[in-house]
Description:
The protein has helices spanning 6-15, 21-31, 35-39, 83-102, 124-135, 148-159, 164-171, 176-182, 184-212; strands at 46-47, 52-55, 57-62, 65-70, 77-80. The protein is mostly helical. It has a 3-stranded antiparallel β-sheet with strand order 1-2-5, with no helix packed on it. The protein has a two-stranded antiparallel sheet with strand order 3-4.
Amino acid sequence: MVTLNPEQSAQLLESIKCTRTYWVVLIALATGMRRGEVLALRWKNVDLDRGTLRVVQSLEQTKVGLRFKDTKSRKVRAIVLPAYAVEELRRLKREQAEELLAVGVRQTADTLTYCRADGEPLQPRSLTQQFMKLRDTVKGLPRIRYHDTRHTHATQLLADGVHPNVAQERLGHSTITTTMDLYSHVTDTMQADAAARLDLAFQNAKSRLKDQG
């Protein structure tokens, strides 16, 4: 598992901002959604006024073509968006409406937030290939896979002290055990940090008692 720190995430987004792939990377880093979930996200499931979205379906590539299916957990989940993602999605919606109109397609609530220039869904493998090509153009970053944007989201949440239950809900894991097992390396670091904080508090308390005596 390879992840990015916040500075590297910002560098990646800035470096690919003029590409179509920027949008799916932005959504993944901001929400932790899986590749198929991002590609199945429709505007009717995005509430920009409230800054939330609902993960309802996933897009799957099969031998006979693309199909929409239930999420991995078979449950709909809600995710609160960071402010920067809300503003960028507003821009995406405006630009996409103009792009679709140019080819005679009207943007509706059922339109996918990320799609081909003609409004049709993008093949998941195509997204992976596009991402890998762009990744190799950004100097100084680890060689992450597209799926690692999801791991990056989770790692940054936990490293910032967000409760694992919240991370579980955002990621759509069926149990908290899955989250804790996947990101034990982060929680181990958090344990060490917690122990250091406790020690500092204890040492400070001892010093105050000594001064009072």
